[in-house]
Amino acid sequence: MITEVERLEVEKVIHDAIGWALTKDIDRLFSIMAQDGDFFIFHPDSKSTIVGFEAFKKLGERVWMRDEFKATDFAVRDLRLKFAELGNAAWYSCFLDDHAEWKGQPTGWDNCRWTGTLEKRGGKWVIVQMHFSFPQD
Questions:
Q1: Residue 124: helix, strand or coil by DSSP?
Q2: Closest Cα partner for 76 from 97, 91, 92, 93?
Q3: In what order do the strands lie in the sheet with 50-51?
Q4: What 3-state DSSP class applies to 61?
Q5: Cβ contacts of residue 130 below 8 Å, gap of 6+?
Q6: What is the pTM of this model?
Q7: pLDDT value of residue 1
Q8: What is the mean pLDDT of residues 1-19?
């Protein structure tokens, strides 16, 4: 049985997966991601797919930690969160607004569909996969 405390912990992990960038707390980001070769992210474009934690870590260090990158705000809306019956896995869906500046120019996403899966490993919730997409009507 999932407690309210555990539900709030998972929600915090989800928010911190984006919100870490406001303070550039990359240690927090890395601590909430599965640190293995099975970790992956599908981005809206096919060339930005990330496979494995090491590729993700290199991206974070190479891009997001540069002075040219500055996160400005984000919002997670309509978060839906479900837990596996055994309480060791969870999955979520929401809409994401994520804004930043690159070399002083605004960039980001509005109304991005964001889904993901978390596992409880060693008593701690970590994200094992994420998928970002935009509807094409």
A1: strand
A2: 97
A3: 50-51, 40-42, 124-133, 105-121, 89-102, 69-83
A4: helix
A5: 17, 40, 41, 42, 114, 115, 116
A6: 0.95
A7: 77
A8: 95
Helix residue ranges per DSSP H, the chain: 4-19, 26-31, 53-59
Q: In a 10 Å sphere around its CB, with 0-12 CB exposed, 13-18 middle and 19+ buried, how is residue 29 labelled? A: buried
Neighbours of 15 (CB within 10 A): 15
DSSP code at position 48: G
33 DSSP assignment = B
- Give the mean model confidence (pLDDT) for residues 78-99: 97
Mean of pLDDT values over 40-44: 94
Contact (CB, 8 A) for 105 and 97: no
Domains, the chain: 4-133 (3.10.450.50)
From CA 115, how far away is CA 130, in angstroms rounded? 6
